[in-house]
Amino acid sequence: DAKTTQPPSMDCAEGRAANLPCNHSTISGNEYVYWYRQIHSQGPQYIIHGLKNNETNEMASLIITEDRKSSTLILPHATLRDTAVYYCIVRVERGSNYKLTFGKGTLLTVNP
Amino acid sequence: DGGITQSPKYLFRKEGQNVTLSCEQNLNHDAMYWYRQDPGQGLRLIYYSQIVNDFQKGDIAEGYSVSREKKESFPLTVTSAQKNPTAFYLCASSQGFKQPQHFGDGTRLSIL
Asked: Cβ contact (<8 Å) for A98 and B105?
């Protein structure tokens, strides 16, 4: 699976949009971009995933560049409860791919 | 509510003891997984199961054992052969290998 690069930490004001970047310059054509987050002492929470089109759900939006070498997770109106470590993962969608490889992620701190 | 339940939340083990961590899901998912997370580290796959009565070793299976007798249950036993068992253990499930994995809230195991 392709390696991802994320900033170690970011800050965001409550109520503002949080834009979390991820570089995955070695991504191949059949690899999906997944985002998870982990609040301290809890299990990771699935947020969203996509291949090449932008995706949106009730939690967030995922913007993938046309060359697919980077993506941005957008939390449109960040709240204090969104403070967590956010992980960007690139993963092949095939039957034998069974594990998620989490890097160090980005610690997002939402400030009042 | 559908979800994944791990119990207990905290577990203490004496040297030489085996302990079993519970994982139950009511999402009707076929696949289940066990990961281990150490402080400041990503997740490492211990065991996974695609269907009932079948499971496979992950990257760090030594010192662990599992069973999958029922679709909704995937208990993990940490045996005395596991030399460094202190960690945060996470159970996950997915509809299939190609679908997003959803996690429980983990069990924190410590050695007395």
From this structure: no
Taking the C-alpha atoms of residue A39 and residue A14, their distance in angstroms, rounded to an integer, is 17
For residues B97 and B89, the answer to whether their CB atoms sit within 8 Å is: no
Q: What is the pLDDT of residues B66-99, one digit of tens each?
A: 999 999 999 999 998 888 999 999 999 999 877 8
The residue of chain B with its CA nearest to that of A8 is B40
In DSSP terms, which residues pair with A13 in a beta bridge?
A111
Task: Indicate if the pLDDT at residue A95 is higher than 60.
Answer: no
Pairwise CB contact (< 8 Å): A44 & B90: yes
Is the Cβ pair B43, A100 closer than 8 Å? yes
Give how far Cα A75 sits from Cα of A43, B79, B93, Å: 20, 42, 25
